[in-house]
User: Fold this.
Amino acid sequence: MNSMDNYPPGAANDPRAPYNQKENPEVEVEVTVSITLSKTVKVLVTDYELIEDVDEDGAYVVKDFTDTNFLAAVEEQVILPQDASLYVDVGSNIKAANDLSGWHVDEIECIREQNYE
Assistant:
């Protein structure tokens, strides 16, 4: 039989009942966020070798990027995520500026896309 408040018998004061559960207050905790990002970009480089060769079709030149420092080119020419806060107008969006600052690069790698010449 139901009581006058429409709760099942004995459920009105049961702390396990969903309608009696209380939310915990917010507590600030410190966490570490690790994100792996990647993006293909085009950069200008000059530190490559031109290898001239001749075959049955005639002379040709091959670009050898073996010793090219792609990472240096990217760091000079591309705004990387860890530097994004430097380009945010703090006056217009303080939260975005704060969220974008303070990131540390754990690892960075730059490789040449094979289909790009």
